Amino acid sequence: MTVNQEIEFSFLLEIIYQKYGYDFRQYSEAHIRRRILNRLAMSQLKSISEIHFKVLHDKIFAAQLLQDLSITVTEMYRDPLFYKALREKVIPILKTYPFLKIWHAGCSTGEEVYSMAIILKEEGLYDRTTIYATDFNQQALNQAKEGIYSNEIIKEYTTNYQLSGATEPFSNYYSSNYEMVIMDQSLKKNIVWANHNLVTDGVFAEVHMILCRNVMIYFNKFLQNKVHQLFYDSLINGGMLCMGAKENLRFTDFSNEYIELDKKQKIFKKKY
What we know:
alpha/beta
């Protein structure tokens, strides 16, 4: 990449931040460049400089680009062994509290939020739990609130559910409607959906557990530490932090602030 192209990319991220308040300046460069270049090709524009103009003056194009830069890769019971470890090592700790607040940060389209809600229901914890499910992508949040997903992927989700140590038929938690499935309304009653940006927003609740899985792999080290500070400030003493399989605390400023509950599944407990 030439010096001019580097400047063009940096300037584009600055425009997005100044104009719309979304800060991608500390995201992984490879991730950001790939998404921007893909939008460039799809739009048949000739240069990043042309994207500058479109972002400044075309709200529809800007919304499309923001959607491109958002991370919406998810599924129900993603990495089933993580949820099995959650049942075995975390749920017994959560059962010691009279009420629970759980923050699912970067919840995308909601599949993992409903996965957690089902586990809590099966373990008799859901009625005393509030789940805060947040993302900066409003379109993804709207889909999450609806809880409507394609019938084509429900077989895969059912397999994931069974591998997670499930105790009930997965079909108990949704109804089918033509080509779609609708998550049961009882799973939604204690979920608070909210727009929250991990990069620019602050603490909004003190919680017993945070799930933020496969989000920070897209952040550089500076931004990872910034988000970990947010999580540390949000967790009660003894609260749990659940991360993605490719993420770790080892190379962050917070590596000594947690006890490792499950090394492989990246589940940590904040020290008292």
